Amino acid sequence: MKTKTLKKNKVNVVTLGCSKNIVDSEVLMGQLKANNFNVEHESEDDNHNIVIINTCGFVENAKQESIDTILRYVEAKKEGSIEKLYVTGCLSERYKADLEKEIPDVDAYFGTRDLPKILKTLKADYKRN
Fold this sequence. Notes:
Elements: E1 7-15, H1 19-34, E2 38-41, E3 48-55, H2 60-78, E4 84-89, H3 90-102, E5 108-109, H4 115-121
Parallel strand pairs: 1-2, 1-3, 3-4, 4-5
C-alpha cells in the first residue's frame, strides 16, 4: 500500500442522481465548511483524505453508476489514496444491508436523513445559520 500525505479534513463530495441529491450535497458541504473542513464537490484531484458519495437508488443507470463509483473509491482506499469512504443517499437508504455485505470496505453507509449522523461520524457539529 502506498503512503502519501493527505490534507487533514479535506473532503470530496461526489453527487450522483437527481437534483434533490445536489441540494442534499450542498447542505452537507455547507455544514462541513462551517466546521472548518476543506470541501470540494466532485473534484478530479486525488488529494482528499475523505470521500462522501451521495448515491441514487431509483433509476437503474444511476444505481449502476453509484455502485461503480463506490467500487472505484474502494480501490482508491485500498491503494492508500484516501483514508475514509462514506456513502449516503437513496441507494444506501434502500439497500444498506446488501451494500454492507457486498462492499464492506466502505467505512459507513448513511440514509437520506442521516446528516446529523454523518456530521457526528466526522466529529463535526450541526451549525445553525
